[in-house]
Amino acid sequence: MQQCDFAVIGGGLVGSAIAYGLASQGHQVSVLDEGDVAYRASRGNFGLVWVQGKGQEIPRYSQWSMCSASKWSALSQELFELTGVATQHHNPGGVHLCYSEAELASREVDLDALSQATDRQFSFKMLNHSQLRDLIPEIGESVTGASWSSWDGHANPLYLLRALHAGIRCHGGRFLAVGKVKGIRRNGESYVIESNHQTITAGRVILAAGLGNRELAPQVGLDAPLNPNRGEILVTERMRPLLNLPTTYLRQTGEGSILMGDSHEDVGFNDGTETPVLAQIAKRAVRALPALANTRVVRSWGALRVMTPDGYPLYQASESHPGAFIACCHSGVTLAAAHAKCLAPWFAGAEAPSEITPFTAERFHVQTSIPA
Fold first, then answer.
1. Residues 300 and 235 occupy one common structural domain
2. Taking burial as the number of CB atoms within 10 A of a residue's CB, which of 79, 151, 160, 252 is the most buried?
3. CA distance 190 to 204
4. With the C-alpha atoms ordered 245, 247, 248, 250, is the resulting torsion angle positive or negative?
């Protein structure tokens, strides 16, 4: 039976960032990964480090995203110096494209409200077509303008995941392919985690298994009201430089290919693709960037986002099972730096980051009285 200070269940971007943060603080960490039979949301991630537009209903989510974005460059450099793996992180700002004057005006109203709610910490600019063309010379004529924010950027999710895994090992952590975790039980001051292949004992346990948390959370007195939401992505052949900065649903990778995505489909646990959805994604991409019209698509995939009922993250410590925590979100790339540098210390005993206060499962259990 293997022993450690922390067992992190889930080896995707959320669990790996947390495990890296803990291991870098000197804790003995074991990451328990289900293997390639898992849904692997992290491997289907679009790769945005994105702030603008997030948190309109709960502004602290915008602040949490900004906290992470501000730490991303340092984390990327730290990982590169430690492991030699470059995450391809760039922070040139990002744009959200608008296709009418009404849409542009509505976007400005929404972002200004968000800026006010964060005491102007979140900043943005509205661009007309001419100003947008200065940033993206081949932007389509039907694009009226865009919102731009310096907070936004992008990275390669697979290189990030590889760097985090390598970083965990560099700091003495273990990455264990244990298969599906079957049970978690309290044993004195420790937790015993039983899986298909191994039994691990840990002082603390962190549930970061994405959709798998639905079954695990009740075992440690937590609630994980999570559902899958599918997103599909198209990838083109390598192209000449077309996009100097990412958009909400288009970005050019370090190798030159263009990623097109951002579908939102409630299809249960089906992580495949559908031709009509891919066709709509391609049509929208060509409208934004006509140079893509005759480009070859070389890959496509579907992946399942981990969604709470309101779309915001879930972070919570168990009251009935001290030392057990849950961490879920669908923005594993954006929030990677905050998870490593702010969330991990909380799990180790530091004060919880103020930005995450609203994100417990209790928000889904609030009942309001309806006047007769």
1. yes
2. 160
3. 7
4. negative
**Residues 165 and 297 placed together within one structural domain of the fold:** no
Contacts of 244 (CB under 8 A, 6+ apart): 92, 135, 136
Average pLDDT by consecutive 10-residue portion of the chain (372 residues)? 90 97 98 72 82 96 98 98 98 98 98 97 98 97 98 97 97 93 94 92 97 96 96 96 96 96 92 95 97 95 93 97 96 97 98 97 72 41
d(CA 70, CA 116): 19
Closest alpha carbon to 303 in 329, 326, 269, 332? 269
Select from 321, 85, 45 the least CA-distant residue to 205. 321
If asked whether residues 144 and 163 sit together in one domain, one would say no
- 292, burial (CB in 10 Å: exposed 0-12, middle 13-18, buried 19+): buried
Same-domain status, 169 and 294: no
**How many domains are contained in the chain?**
2
Per the CB < 8 A criterion, the answer to whether 95 and 50 are in contact is no
Task: Judge contact between 274 and 300, C-beta under 8 A.
Answer: no
In tens, the pLDDT along 260-297 reads 998 999 999 999 999 999 999 999 999 999 999 999 99
Q: Do 266 and 293 reside in the same domain of the chain? A: yes
- pTM, 2 dp: 0.95
CA distances from 256 to 80, 237, 253, 284 (A): 21, 8, 5, 20
321 occurs within a structural domain: yes
CA nearest 304: which of 356, 201, 226, 203? 226
322 part of a folded domain: yes
Look up the CATH number of the domain holding residue 296. 3.30.9.10
Residue 147, token pair as written in the block: 């919102």
- What is the bridge-based pairing of β-strands 250-252 and 145-149? unpaired
